Structure formats: structure tokens, C-alpha cells
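Render this sequence as a predicted structure.
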Amino acid sequence: MRVLPVLLAAVAACSADPMIWPLPSSFTNGTSTIAIDGSGFQFKATTPSADLTAAFGRYRAQTFQHRPVGTSGISTATVTVVNPTAELQLGVDESYTLSVTGSAITINAPTQFGAYYAMETLSQLVIFDFDTQQYVVKNGPWVINDKPRFIHREVLIDSARHFEPVETLKNIITSFTYAKINTMHWHLVDQQSFPYDSPTYPKLSKMGAYSNFERFSQNDVKDVVEYARQRGVRVLVEVDTPGHAASWCKGHPEICPSPTCTMPLNPATNATFELIEGLFKDLKDATIDNHFHIGGDEVNTNCWTSTPAVQAWLTEQGYTADQAYAYFSGRVSDIVFGMNRSVTGWEELWDHFGTKLDKRTIIQQWLPGSTIAKQATAAGYRVIWSTDGVWYLDGLSVTWETMYQQEPCTGIADNLCDTLVLGGGGEMWGETVDTSDIQNTIWPRMAAIAERLWSPRTVTDQKKAAPRIAYFRCLLNRRGVGAAPVNNKVARQAPPGPGSCFDQ
């Protein structure tokens, strides 16, 4: 019994949209089937660059996974990029135009990053027909004009609660490109472990990592950043301060309130800020992004008020514990600004500073029911939307449908949404994920968030999206990504029994 073709036909019939994820901004198509020469297919750049050449090899292998019979069809995609060596930073132009006619495939993009997304879209259009043993594009000709709705589309990866090896990080980054995710928010260290080898302060990881095998060297970080850059993925590093920092005390107890009360970090000694500055400079040398995440969330100041030396300093300065938090965050922000980088921080920064914050600061909303995004944008500040309970990937009972329903700009004026809501993302906190289950916890639910961040605001129909996300989950599986069944009530559950990928 040939179940799979029947299921495929049913999936396609349920949606008037093409089986492309995320859905492009605009497109036109016809009814013709266009043959593609999978044996000799090449991408050709009108202005070559090393980045494009490397991408061509990746996308050719990704698009043509089967050995076809015969050599008929289009054999070349012409790629024209205005600036093929653009710098990868927040707001870089990621738009593209893709045309697939009966005689030619052309890609036009302002930067190489737009070209990458065009090739990703093409790889989803090209299918292998097992009956004819040929590659084809169905429902052609195609003209796709595409660009992201939001410029910041992240997944947070937490490498402190469970160590995530370099190869795991690279595999995750590769999976991001399939859904046009452009940022890995790297929550590098936390109270549980300090896996980063700071050249200036090596005792931080020597004493603070889980083991000698669960550490990132300076070159490891550089390699991850470069691997991501070549795929159009920014790496936004987060070092959470002053809370979530108990692991720092194992190597440098002098920056903590006391041996028995270890966090928040001690604001009463300059040694704390000297270490932070040296650590941040090390990370600046290893990374390329113009933004740095300083955390700032969940700061319980009881250790400050219960430690006599810190309490004496508070009294001397005339600070409440809350004012000391503001002082600490201000000094850390100044360190980042002094490195000519902008600050990103969790929404507690807005709670404490409000409009006193430097306008270069980006506020990341995360608390359930929060209205920080509305407040901050009304005051002219930029925000990132990643609210717990709906876009936190560690919430295993949150379904893709719930994630798909969210709108980052609810209650925010259109002009502020367009200019100050930078985007958002799914946060993969690491309490219960490591290499064994991280991919099937992220995917396929993250695809729902990806489409909300890429596609036009009007693309909200869950019923129309359902067959496409089912198809996309199977595409991820075919590409070696362990995406869980799309209809799971609890994320990362195994398939319930025998059956097609399209029927789970």
C-alpha cells in the first residue's frame, strides 16, 4: 500500500500556500512542472566571493540529496549580489528575489545573507520525483520577493545548565538556517557552571566548569562565531550579571559577597568590575557582534543586605539594595559602551532605570503578562519579545499552535512596531536539555516562532499553516534534524507508533 504519496497529496491539498517555511512576503506562481538537472546543477555568482562559494557548495548538497537518472532540465542558478562581503550585524539587509522559469533560475540580493535565504527557499521548492528519478519544481514559474518582518530572530541556547559541545552548537546553527533564524543568543555562563576559558581569568572555567571536558576555549568561541557568520547567523553572547553568577566564586571568591552567600556579585569592591571588564574584553576579541547581553534578571539582593561588609558599603553610599542593583548594572553597561558595543538586557533593566537608560540599550521582555515592550517603545527604546509561557521552549506543554498565535506588537502603534520592536525568539533554557534532546525540544515548535518573525503580520491562519509545518517537520527530519512529531501535546515525545512522518 503506497501510503506516503496519498499523505503528501493530502498535505498539499489542505493548503493553498506553497510548502515553504517560513512563508515568503510575496510570490506568484503558475501550474507548470519545471525540470532541474540535479546531476550538473551549479550556482554561479556574477560577483564571486569566498562566502558565496562556500554557500554554493552547502546548498547544492542540501538541495540534491539523491542521485538522479538523466541530465535534463535547468542546470544553473545565476546569483547576483550587490555587496557579497557585507558585515553581519543587526539590521543587515536580508531581502532577496528568486525567479524560477522554464528556462532559468535567477537570484538577486543586496547582500550574501539575502542570497543564502534565496537558496534556502529554492532548496524547499526543488523536490525529487521518485517515479521519474528527476528533480523538479512544481507549480512554476515562480517569482518570490521576500524579506523578514523583523530584523532580530533568535533562539537562546543555554550552555551553562547543561554543556552543549561545539559540534552540537554547529548542528543547531545549521538547523536555524532552514527556518531563516538569524541569531543564536548564547547564554554562555550561569550559576551552575562557567564553561568559558577567559584568557585573562583562567580560574573562572578551571574551577567553575563542570569538568575539564566541558569547557570552551577562546578558539572554540571564535570557531562557533565564524561558523555562524558564514551561514548568516549572528552570535549574541550573554554573560548574566550580577545574579546567576555563583559559579564565578569558585575561581574568584573575592568578587562574591561571602563564601556562603555567593550572589549577586559583590558591588562593594572594584575587583568585581575589573574582572567583568577583563572578561568582556576577552569575549570582544572572540566575537564580532556589535551588541552584548548583560542579563540583569532575577536579582535577589538578600546576600548584599545580609553580608556585613556589603551592608556597610550600602550604608556608606546611602544606597538601598535596589539602588545598588541600579549602580551595578550602570557600571556594567558603561563597560560595554566603552568597548563600542550596545547593551542588551532583560526587562528588569527597564524596571529599575526606565527612561534613564541609555537609548543604545535594547530591552528583552520575558516575564509572563509583561507590558514592558509597550512601555519601552512608547518611550523610544528598542525591544525584543520572548515572553515566558508562550515562547519559552523549555515549556514542554506549550504547543506550536500557541506559539504561532503570539504577536510581538500587540498594543503597540504600527510606527513603533516597525522601528523599535526588533523581533524576538524562542528561549531554549538548558535545565533539561543536552545534546541528546535539544533538537527535538527546539523543533518543530520553533518553526512557529520563526514564521511569526519572518512572514507578514497578516500570515496568522493556523489551519493553513498546519499542513506546511507538518511538511517542514518532515523536511527537517530528511535533513538530519531530530524534530519531534508536530502534533505532540508534550514537546520532544517520541512518535506514538508506526506511521508516516506526515501523520504524527
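Summary. The chain is about 35% helix and 20% strand. Confidence is low (pLDDT under 50) at residues 1-15.
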